[in-house]
Fold:
Amino acid sequence: MSAQDEIPQQVGTAVIGAGQAGLVMGHHLQRAGEDFVILEAAPRVGDSWRRRYDSLRLFSPPRYASLPGWPIPVRGFPTRDEMADYLEAYASRFALPVRTGTAVHRIARVSDGFVVETGAGTYFAGRVVVTTGAHVRPVVPELAADLDPGIRQIHSLDYRGPEQLADGGVLVVGAANSGTDVALDAVAAGHPTWLAGRHPGQVPFDLDAPSSRAVIPVVMFAFRHVLTRRTPMGRRFIASSDGHGVMLVRNRLADLDRAGVVRIGRIEAVQDGRPMSTDGVAPEVSTVVWCTGSRPDHAFLDLPEAFGSDGEPVHVRGVSPVEGLYFLGLEFQFAVASGTIQGLDRDARHVVRRMRRTAPPTRADARERTPVRG
Structure:
């Protein structure tokens, strides 16, 4: 019997994705006594972190890197692997109903809920909460196709460490946090390294200095409570950040300069197969690493009415005008913190409260509060 022929498993709520957003959602659904399941495509909880680059460390100390109900048991800023292992242990500690190895292929509306088709069977769910990560589909400029075929190209989503870089010069395109991490990796491994892109600014303190302990709570408070869609300052910040990397948090311009990374303008052309910056620099490189952003992948949602003309979800604080459909972990869902661990708890609480109301927001209301990307 094929998965399509099986009798669908009945569940109150299907949570799509067992990353930090899915686990936080599961925690609050469990506390509310809801019937739910968390569907995760990867073999293990935390694999989305294990696929990140080796040198990754969080910007948040344990107090702000923890999910509700259990502090992360590490000292200092968690590493990639520490975060991955913590998520796996969190799911086990709270006995959250996670089904790993269960990739969701299609979700469609039926009369009184949703049919959720997966590679491991079909579910019928009264509600669906989409918590899949925002960083799934790589964004690469069209001019990448014009580069010399001999130049190795890697997107930051696929970058793990400097062993992937070809011998010779390295160009990192995108000067935000991941781009500066990769550039410092490359130059430390002995590669002549150029970093291209607009400088996004930097926080006015050293994250790793003891003095930052007094500043971090202030910054976190601003990200969660000041820079929100409800405040004029928050709306201006969100509008200015859309499509651009956030300011540098750990790495600083002085660190790049001291390490020997050469900073150049944006890459806007290709000349004779080589990348050309706006300030006329055409570096001799054997590898280009594109740290040019990524988008979520909601192709499994066979719900055209859930999206705007720009292809982005239409919602009010994660509540879709499609009855029974919700999102958690979207960039700027409510605040600057929404796409980070720090913002998930509050946003999940809001979604659970709204689940208990019958009327979803109108599409017009949702459009007013969802940014339209150009």
The domain at 9-136+296-369 is CATH 3.50.50.60 (FAD/NAD(P)-binding domain). DSSP finds ten helices and 16 strands in the chain.
